[in-house]
Amino acid sequence: MSGTYIKVQTDDFNIGQLSEQVRADDATSGAIVTFTGIVREMEVVDDHLKALYLEHYPGMTEKALLSIADQARERWELGNIVIVHRVGELALNENIVFVGVGSAHRDNAFLASRFIMDYLKRDAPFWKKEITGEGEQWVEQKKTDLDAAEDW
């Protein structure tokens, strides 16, 4: 039986354990696709990023993520889905988000994982602040993220 696991947390996650959770108790999935988002170094105006700070709306965020997973299930036949997103202050190279999708066929798993990430970036109530040596600044949603979700 396929299931959906959603978690928003401050603690880091273990990619291997979450990948196993996508596989758990599901012998129907012949394909597992995972995505891990990581805090990357980038130039922010004239300074370098030191960390990100992510906030969310507890309860509402989990419901939004579950809705996104449900929408993916409506489009494709899927096995287990695991979505874990971190909040709080995250340093460079730390994990931010994990999305894992199982399916009988690889195309469905690849498409569903991309769909989930595109919709997560647009619809999940997370707010991001960039922390640099010069200070802190809340970040607006990127047009490219909004456009990616519109492609579906």
UniProtKB/TrEMBL annotation:
Keywords from the named record: Molybdenum cofactor biosynthesis, Transferase
GO terms of biological process kind: Mo-molybdopterin cofactor biosynthetic process
Catalytic activities: 2 [molybdopterin-synthase sulfur-carrier protein]-C-terminal-Gly-aminoethanethioate + cyclic pyranopterin phosphate + H2O = molybdopterin + 2 [molybdopterin-synthase sulfur-carrier protein]-C-terminal Gly-Gly + 2 H(+)
Segments passing through the bilayer: none
Stated name of the protein: Molybdopterin synthase catalytic subunit
Assembly and oligomerization: Heterotetramer of 2 MoaD subunits and 2 MoaE subunits. Also stable as homodimer. The enzyme changes between these two forms during catalysis.
Gene Ontology terms for molecular function: molybdopterin synthase activity
Enzyme Commission number(s) from the entry: 2.8.1.12
Similarity annotation: Belongs to the MoaE family.
Pathway as given in its UniProt record: Cofactor biosynthesis; molybdopterin biosynthesis
EC class (word): transferase
Gene3D superfamilies associated with the record: Molybdopterin biosynthesis MoaE subunit
Keyword NAD assigned: no
Pfam family, one: MoaE
